[in-house]
Design a protein that fits this description.
mainly alpha; Serine Threonine Protein Phosphatase 5, Tetratricopeptide repeat; 2 domains; 12 helices
Length: 348
């Protein structure tokens, strides 16, 4: 394994850039605006690293893990990192295609570390199952419910143990003396690869389950007619004319009432200025134009017409009410004083 110092420096610098970008992505939120772009940029960096590894023949199938220099051990994880980043890609790419690429990256990583004898029990049996049926691979396999739960618990404990071992190796690297630095660093890189092997099988399992779900999903592609259809737009332009309220009082257009035109002008481009506005006078004028508001003169004429339409003067209703009250009083008196109740002694 011979490389020039310039090529070695270029490859190591490129790998450090890719690692720094990946660590920044892991510490950021997936909902951030630039998350998708950063993932794509990190994928590009790792692809360049992998291309340089292949062109420089950094690894050979005729070597053992002891023949690999300590500085080259982290490069064994490039395909694993690529697979993790591919599974995080959602924007501007076919999700099924990204998942299949991630599964291929996992397969290449597992083949590489297996060639160096790093894949040991119980992961060697998982690797055989994955190679025989990559599309249907599952970490737990076809087992009953209780056994499946126990297998998941064992896998979780194994992953936790691997990560504890990796963190312990990292702590020793930071605390070890100068003469033991290379040995401690080598132990950390190998522990990191063990975590990668475990995570790869879990990653393939998750990919196959997601691909199975996506196989039942409707296609997401749209035709040109659907793309040109304005009825699906959420940002429809507001109508410049027409009534503001329906006959039942429901708003037909968004509007904001302001005290005056000057207030509206001062509020332009300030916080909350996102809807068309109008003054109270403009609103009343608009409603009067469409007949939603009656003037006082028109209201008086309409009331006079209603009185005339009832066919009589204004005193007819009062006389009718007085006669009704008088009749009710007479009925009450007759109820309280029945006939003959005042002549009980038969006098007169």
């Amino acid at each position: 394994m011979t490389t020039s110092s310039i090529d070695d420096e270029s490859l190591s610098a490129l790998f450090r850039r890719a690692e720094a970008e990946r660590e920044a992505i892991e510490s950021s939120s997936p909902t951030s605006a630039d998350y998708g772009k950063r993932v794509s940029a990190a994928v590009t960096l790792y692809e360049r690293v992998q291309s340089a590894i292949t062109s420089l023949s950094v690894f050979s199938r005729n070597e053992t893990i002891d023949d690999v220099p300590t500085t080259s051990l982290p490069l064994l994880s490039v395909e694993w990192r690529l697979a993790e980043l591919e599974t995080a890609r959602w924007e501007g790419i076919d999700r099924r295609l990204a998942l299949r690429r991630a599964r291929e990256c996992y397969a290449r990583f597992l083949d590489l570390v297996d060639a160096y004898g790093i894949v040991v029990s119980p992961y060697d049996a998982l690797l055989d199952r994955f190679r025989s049926l990559p599309d249907g691979f599952s970490v737990v396999g076809a087992v009953a419910g209780a056994d499946r739960r126990d297998a998941k618990i064992r896998a979780f404990k194994a992953e936790r143990e691997l990560r504890v071992r990796r963190d312990e190796a990292s702590r020793r690297v930071r605390e070890c003396e100068e003469e033991d630095g290379d040995e401690g660093l080598r132990g950390f890189y190998l522990a990191e690869l063990e975590v990668g092997i475990h995570s790869s099988f879990n990653g393939v399992d998750a990919i196959n389950r997601e691909l199975q779900l996506l196989s039942h999903a409707p296609p997401t592609t749209t035709t040109s007619e659907e793309q040109d259809d304005d009825s699906t737009r959420l940002d429809q332009p507001l109508a410049n004319s027409g009534p503001l309220l329906s006959r039942t009082g429901k708003p037909l257009q968004p509007f904001t009432l302001v005290n005056s035109r000057a207030d509206r002008s001062r509020a332009v481009f300030r916080q909350g200025h996102n809807l068309p506005t109008m003054s109270v006078d403009e609103y009343l004028a608009e409603e009067r134009k469409r007949g939603g508001i009656l003037d006082s003169d028109a209201g008086a004429d309409a009331g006079q017409r209603r009185k005339g339409g009832l066919g009589g003067g204004g005193d007819d209703g009062v006389d009718e009410d007085a006669a009704t009250y008088k009749a009710r009083a007479w009925d009450d008196f007759k109820d309280d004083n029945p006939r003959g109740s005042g002549n009980t002694l038969n006098m007169g």
